[in-house]
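Continuing the batch. This is chain 6 of the set; chains 1 through 5 are on the previous pages. Same settings as before, nothing changed between runs. Recording input and output for traceability.
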Amino acid sequence: MLLDQNFVRQQFPAFQEASLQGQAFFDNAGGSYACAQVIEALSNYYRETKVQPYHPHPAALKAGAQMDASHARLAAYLNVDTDEVYMGPSTSQNTYVLAQAFANVLQAGDEIIVTNQDHEANIGVWHRLAKHGIVIKEWQVDPKTGALSVDDLDELITPKTKLLAFNHCSNIVAYINPVAEICAKAKAAGVITLVDGVSYAGHGLPDVGALGADIYLFSLYKTFGPHLGMMVIRNAVAELLGNQAHYFNGAYKAKWFVPAGPDHAQVAASQAVLDYFEAVHDHHFEATSDVKLIAERVRKLFHETEQPLLDKLLTFLSSHPNVTLLGSDQASERAATVSIVPTQQTPQELGRKLVEQGIMCGVGHFYAVRLLEAMNIDPNTGVVRLSFVHYTTPEEIDQLIAALDQAL
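Output for chain 6:
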């Protein structure tokens, strides 16, 4: 089954926006385009229900029902219970709240394992717990490849290890880590797992239940939705950590890990991402009410669309003499986020040349400073990052390769 990209791109107003014409969008890892369903849901909320939700009048009841529906529908797609879903301002803020919660239940001498492959949001908050006497151990990447070895955990995990924080997919080298295997190893040792899925989820929402993660986080604004951080906390861990919000909100579990309170409109609009997914599904397959089947089919469609394009780009870059490709040159081992370091010019110079040719890309360290330092790359100059998703066309990949060939 081939993805109908004409249909898909019709679902994104950005592709009809006059100011964006002629520009190929390769900065999706920083934030994807929002689908029309989400934009319309936000607009409707602000027009019809921009009130305090859950109060007894009709508009407030409707607003609250929309927020509840987002929790329930997203939980079903992620294969977890509804009360295990939380939505905060961002993934960085969510990890901060989680770190404060863990600080209250861990003891001096307890150990947390973090990687040096992650975005700083899933590293720095845990390192700060060292001031409480928590021992922070680093699961280090191979400095040549940027990859993690699961075997290293056999020495890192001890009876004192309480938490393992790692990413599903690096936002720089893009390796897809074997989350289910890692979580199973940690669980066997009684270790809680926290998985940062920000750089993975834009390529298809994961089956968190099947992965076995105790906590899973990603950003809805990188999955075609509003600017919120999505967080799954399995019930056993939530009960261990307890309510982090106002004490009198203890009876409202959805508020436990969102102490600042939710953005009502964005929470309500979050379910519209699933309206988009279901539109894609029903355009390609016979309609069904089986949410798990819809999620599996859409995830597979996205993956099978991205992989050939990724393979073509990797083939070009891995053989070019004037650029260093970070991470694997095998599309099957990574997501469609490609970071490069030019050898004859700075990343900033290359980025500027690409932009002049209509390529929307990113340049910098992308908050993965520790990873770049481990790979002997200066984070002050960073890398050029080229990231795409299922709505990227073969023609745009050709445009990118031609621009790279000229710029390099």
